[in-house]
C-alpha cells in the first residue's frame, strides 16, 4: 500500500486544515480512504497524466510528484519536454539518474521572485506555485483559488529540519500593503519574519555492495517493532511494523532473529552499519532517543558507518537492495509522529 500523506500523515481527516482536505479531495480522497490510508486513482497515474491541480495538491501535502512519481525514472526514458524543465532547474543526466532531490540543487536556495521565467515555468511543471516554492504559510493553495485558512482541530505542525536562509512571506490579506511603496517596505522587512516550514523528509545513501532487488518502505508513521535476522556472516533480513503496515525485506527465519519493540514516545534516531571488505552488510545496530541500543545484530566488525537523524527528525523507513539477504541498506528520516 503506497504512503500517501506526507507532512499531514499523522492527522486524521477531521483534524486536517481545510486547505489540506481540499488538496486531498483533488487527489481523490474522502474521509474513509484517507483515514484507512487506501490508495486512490492518483497513485496509478503516471506523471504525464497528472493535471496541474493534482501536481500542486500532492506537493502541498508533502508528496511532490518529482519524488513520488519520477524517482528511479531514468533520464533516457523521459520526454524532451521534461528534460528541458529538469535542466532549467539544474538537473543533469547524472544527478537526475541518482535521484538528487530538488533541495540539493542550487535553485532551491532562491525565492520565487528570484527565479528566471524559464525556472518558474519548470517549477510550475513539476508541481509548484509561488506559495509552495517559498514555503509560506499560504492561504492560497492554487493560483487564483483561495482556501479557508482556519484549520479544523489543527494540531501543532512539527518544525522542519531543513536549514534555510530564506525569510517568510506572509499571505494574510490583512497584512498586504495598499501601495507599491508600502509593499516594498514590507519586503525589506522579510528577514524579521518567521518562516513556517513543513517538515522535510530525507534519506541516507544505501550502504553496501548492492545487488538484489530495490526496496523502499516509504515515509511512515511511528515504528512499533523491528525484527532483524543476522548471523556471523551477514544481515539476512529486516521486518518492520509501522503504524498501519508492515514491510519485510530480505529473508526472515525463525533462527538468529532479534525483535525490538519501541515504547510510547520512543524513536530511532541513529544507526550503525558494519560492512566487510566485499561490502557485505554484516551487522546493524539501532539507537533510540531514550538511550536504548538495539543490537548489534550480526558481526559488529569491519568498516562501520554511523548515521544520525537530522535535528527534529527520526527514522521513518528503510530503503536499499535485498534478495536472500540485505545487500545494501539506507535510512529514511522524517518528523516524529504521535506515538
UniProtKB/TrEMBL annotation:
<dbReference type="Pfam" id="PF01419">
    <property type="entry name" value="Jacalin"/>
</dbReference>
<dbReference type="InterPro" id="IPR001229">
    <property type="entry name" value="Jacalin-like_lectin_dom"/>
</dbReference>
<feature type="domain" description="Jacalin-type lectin">
    <location>
        <begin position="201"/>
        <end position="335"/>
    </location>
</feature>
<protein>
    <submittedName>
        <fullName>Jacalin-like lectin domain containing protein</fullName>
    </submittedName>
</protein>
<feature type="region of interest" description="Disordered">
    <location>
        <begin position="148"/>
        <end position="215"/>
    </location>
</feature>
<feature type="compositionally biased region" description="Low complexity">
    <location>
        <begin position="160"/>
        <end position="178"/>
    </location>
</feature>
